Amino acid sequence: ARIVTLPGDGVGPEVTDAAVAVLQAVAERSGHTFAFESHAIGGCAIDATGEPLPAATLAACKQADAVLLGAVGGPKWSDPQAKVRPEQGLLALRAALGVFANLRPLHVHPALASLSPLKNEKLKNVDVLFVRELTGGAYFGAKTRTTDTATDECKYTVAEVERVTRRAFELARERRQHVTSVDKANVLETSRLWRSTVTRIAAEYPDVKLEHQLVDSMAMLLLTQPSRYDVIVTENLFGDILTDEAAALAGSLGLLPSASLGEGKVGLYEPIHGSAPDIAGHGVANPLGAILSAALLLRHSLDLDVEATTIEAAVSHVLTNGPHSRDIGGRAGTREICDAVIEALD
Amino acid sequence: ARIVTLPGDGVGPEVTDAAVAVLQAVAERSGHTFAFESHAIGGCAIDATGEPLPAATLAACKQADAVLLGAVGGPKWSDPQAKVRPEQGLLALRAALGVFANLRPLHVHPALASLSPLKNEKLKNVDVLFVRELTGGAYFGAKTRTTDTATDECKYTVAEVERVTRRAFELARERRQHVTSVDKANVLETSRLWRSTVTRIAAEYPDVKLEHQLVDSMAMLLLTQPSRYDVIVTENLFGDILTDEAAALAGSLGLLPSASLGEGKVGLYEPIHGSAPDIAGHGVANPLGAILSAALLLRHSLDLDVEATTIEAAVSHVLTNGPHSRDIGGRAGTREICDAVIEALD
Ligand SMILES: CC(C)[C@H](C(=O)O)[C@@H](O)C(=O)O
Ligand SMILES: CC(C)[C@H](C(=O)O)[C@@H](O)C(=O)O
Questions:
Q1: What homologous superfamily is domain B117-249 in, according to CATH?
Q2: A1-105+254-346 and A117-249 share one CATH topology?
Q3: B240 annotated to a ligand binding site
């Protein structure tokens, strides 16, 4: 299988290296062959080529079986007046690969419950899968700017809502048969289209229960009753906000993986943390978000479910027994955590 | 002083009655005279007149010194295909009164810390004032809908951002001199206008420290470091989501008041909870959000700071000593809580 890596900026290269090392260890043990090819994206691509998503990078991603991304962005490229921004590379890649469904699973590992801001009793049985629409909404709508005024258009078509809804319901079938759709239908026209489309598609899945929540209520319910939710499907910007809120529950952003999937097989996998410029280059970033993203890559793009589960079990073992990185209260560096995961594969 | 009450739907009338009773008790004790006048808004106004904000209601509000609102909406008027919705009345009223700054204070009363989903140590010293822009953004932008597509436009002018920013900085001066501005400047054009405008206005307030956060990070930081924040200023939709998230920290939505202010004196005051149709009519709704909104009314529209503080102290006394309503683990009804607050005024 051909895997393109896009290490990107900040801690991106460090955590991507770790994930690749784990994938290589899995390859050795399982007899599979993974060919890795690294390309530039984000700030480092701007520095090298002037563009956040160079044509060579995009071409390589399109021909790959899967793409593993580190992180993009950093203060060096954050001037609000800048014409070219690292994030544009990521958004353009998501759009070009057509990965409209961003899966963000949330569990709270028992060893980390003490790090969560939430009370322990709230964290019991939390097992949520967010399905965030990733290629529509205000992220990709028309923008205007004059000296006096700025606008962003949020736009959704019925077809865009249908495909991400179907993905959410199919995933819910394999889980606890419950979908919560989040919108702001009491105010937004796109949310009313969202709600009526989700309601209609739900009828195709009579075995799955559908519930609607307004985004403001959902932001509250995630804290007061997090264990009530199974699959939560929502539009791009609401998903961005709610998944970061939910990530706080897990004790650290550094642990959380994501998979972005489209109709085709090529998926985009990335930890949900950012480029963490404050700790970049020090070899102390938590690689578990990237490593768990690599596990999702095996499961969703390469159909290697057993190998994915092996990685997840190894990560769980390391979380239980250590070593732990700084963000979760330990002192171990990126490489040490990575080695411990590899050791735990056996 | 002339106070228009807009009880609205669901529990709105019950909690508004309680707030009026408290204001009347304050009037007796302080020698002030408040004239109350009640008008229809929301679902009950649709039933009576076909419109969620009848002209008579708006005219009365415009001539009042302050407006005290209960809640609007309910399942009866929630058909997504409906042409007229209760929420439109509230949005139209906010726009017509020009109340562009929605203040939502958040404290966690020690007696309620056990009800908060957050760990107790996180709740120490939490004292945040949200300033949510209330008359712009996607709430009021152009909307389109065809069979296939829907759009919402989010629009901000520099002037709209300036005035709410100034309000936030003025409020921060009276507090801990710290403003956090929340946007999504790495993706949205309106957020880039927001950020550059806030940065420019901040220079007029050299005594106040300004910090920018992205909305997704802020959703996380509110949970991991809530005591770090003083004044948080943000646009309409982000404010809607973040204030509900923050409200969960307080142990119950039922406690939280809000004040919506413009350039003029007439302010709009409402608890942040909704119409709670499930408990409406049973006399069990928590009236403290409405009562604390009445305190904000005295402070911000009538310049009666001492009287406002008296109400707040009485509410605090009731929270410490009981009786408590169901939402905070007690059994007392609306009227009983209201009477206890009035008794505690002395
Ligand atoms: C970097 C940024 C553009 C991105 C987003 O908003 O989608 C990030 O926050 C994420 O959630 O993946
Ligand atoms: C009822 C609804 C339109 C309203 C809003 O979204 O502003 C409410 O959620 C609020 O926060 O006051």
A1: Isopropylmalate Dehydrogenase (3.40.718.10)
A2: yes
A3: yes
